């Protein structure tokens, strides 16, 4: 069974600085996807970034980028130039390619606070 | 586009009561999902529907039933609510199989069972 671990329950960062959120996962699969989702205080989950395991290039999306280390089963999220609106819970998620449809496995989340 | 909508936003039930949570999406997505989120936990999949007319169990299906009424709507029913079902429930949809991890979520329903 796949598991996703986020070892940082809470983090804080000053506005305009850079922060990195950690995620590790355990799987015997070779083909899979990894995601970071954001849940602001409004509760609505929003996809931040996606990474296909077969791609060596790390995904980027504006101020958000990932460091994907397949051998180490590590998938960290870097947020550059942090903004107050980045304050949210961040969930790392895993999905097996071609497996049970839509079965996203989520970590327990990291609560990020951006301070002015 | 409203995206994914859920009703109600809040609900309080007594143990043993039944209710149906409604979900609709207007993005013409094929797949729809129901999750629950408990304090300190990530989301856990209850049921999903890969297409109209099909439903499958997820990680935590016990105590729930679902209906994929049509392509737009996917409802979740609690036949006899229990305090352990106190949670926040999220509905989600995704466009097709290759993008199934890219899910669009509704605002959630906060359910309390006393």
Overall geometric form of chain A: globular
Which residue ranges of chain B are poorly predicted, with pLDDT under 50 across at least 5 consecutive positions? none
The largest pleated sheet of chain B is described as: 7 strands, mixed
> Average pLDDT value of chain A?
92
Structural class of chain A: mainly beta
Provide the β-strand percentage band of chain B: over 45%
Q: Would you identify the regions of chain A where 5 or more consecutive residues have pLDDT less than 50?
A: none
User: What is the distance, rounded to the nearest whole angstrom, between the alpha carbons of the first and last residues of chain A?
Assistant: 41 Å
Distance between the termini of chain B: 36 Å
Q: What spatial form of chain B do the alpha-carbon principal axes imply?
A: globular
Q: How many strand segments of chain A?
A: 12
Question: Level of helix content of chain B?
Answer: under 10%
Radius of gyration of chain B from CA coordinates: 13 Å
> Order of SSEs of chain B, N→C?
EEEEEEEEEEE
- Proportion of helical residues of chain A: under 10%
SSE sequence of chain A, one letter per element: EEEEEEEEEEEE
Number of E-type strands of chain B: 11
Which band does the percent of strand residues of chain A land in? over 45%
- Overall radius of gyration of chain A: 14 Å
Number of helices of chain B: 0
What's the multimeric state? heterodimer
Fold blueprint:
The complex is a heterodimer of chains A (116) and B (114).
Chain A lengths: L2 E3 L4 E5 L4 E3 L2 E3 L5 E8 L6 E7 L7 E2 L2 E6 L4 E6 L8 E9 L8 E2 L3 E6 L1
Parallel strand pairs in A: 2-12
Antiparallel strand pairs in A: 1-4, 3-9, 5-6, 5-10, 7-8, 8-9, 10-11, 10-12
Chain B lengths: L3 E4 L2 E4 L5 E7 L5 E7 L5 E7 L6 E2 L6 E5 L5 E5 L8 E8 L9 E2 L3 E5 L1
Parallel strand pairs in B: 2-11
Antiparallel strand pairs in B: 1-3, 3-8, 4-5, 4-9, 5-6, 7-8, 9-10, 9-11
